[in-house]
Amino acid sequence: MKLSQFQFDLPQELVARYPTEERDKARLMVGTRRNGKIEHKQFKDLLHYLGDGDTLVMNDTKVFPARLHGKKEKTQADIEVFLLRELNAESRLWDVLVDPARKIRIGNKLYFGEGDMMVAEVVDNTTSRGRTLRFLYDGPHEEFRARLFELGETPLPKSVGRPPEPVDVERYQTIYAEHEGAVAAPTAGLHISRELLKRLQIKGVNLGFITLHVGLGNFRRIEVEDLSKHKADAEQIVITQAAADLINNTLDKGKQVCAVGTTVVRTLESSVTTDNRVLSFSGWTNKFIFPPYAVQLPTMLVTNFHLPCTAQMMTVASFTGYEFMREMYEIAVREKYQFGTYGDAMLVL
Questions:
Q1: Cα 245 → chain centroid
Q2: What is the CATH number of domain 67-152?
């Protein structure tokens, strides 16, 4: 398929700038692939589509405050540093993005915080925009990370169209976030409230957790028209044996496995066998899912309405089928659903 097939006209006012007042009060479009039926609900109505023995699979990655604002030595030029991942704890080495990249060279020092609380030195140019920084800090590692994250702010995507506010500290994080390592939230899960999870459990729905630490690939634009030529960035994933057993047992019993978000789809599809079994796995995936690839493992999908030409939109199309996805998106624009990080959701059966 071609990149241009995932372009559509999205009015700016339909890109959500703030979360709903309550997590599960977002709108929910429900689409049934078997007959093409489309319904309009609230997210809390997810409860009515899952039953005893079904499994809801969620990504329990935790977002860390990855965006830092600093100054370049001598010129005092403003520099934004986006932490991607820690490369070496002992040496304080981090893989980062810098903006503007053209102003940064190997050997430059960057200063962060009041009184230059934190100093970093550029030690490598890893990509056209990326750099490796060595933070110059002599204290214990836990103290270093605490200081670093104290300086950071919530890494809201630029598409939200505003700087982070206090509300984002809580709301740009799922309620079940546990394993720190993501630079972007798995957005479908932002709609899940504690009350909804409790009611699902009372109904007999199993809760399964996998981990995908959302990384640089979430922000990188796809720049090739022929999607088969796009190379996705690798992201770290973990599927425990307990999670694999739960999912496989659910399928064996003929019950539903509902993936919450495209990160869950990508994780499961990265470790699925030819006979539709998921294997435990800890490592990295660069799997890029787009039609005509057919998603094998989850039987239901919860996901947000994504921005044009994004990898997430393409993954959705691999689950729904391209034409049905386009129909749902056209209706969403017409019915003024909210798109993006804090936007509304769809449930595909």
A1: 24
A2: 2.40.10.240
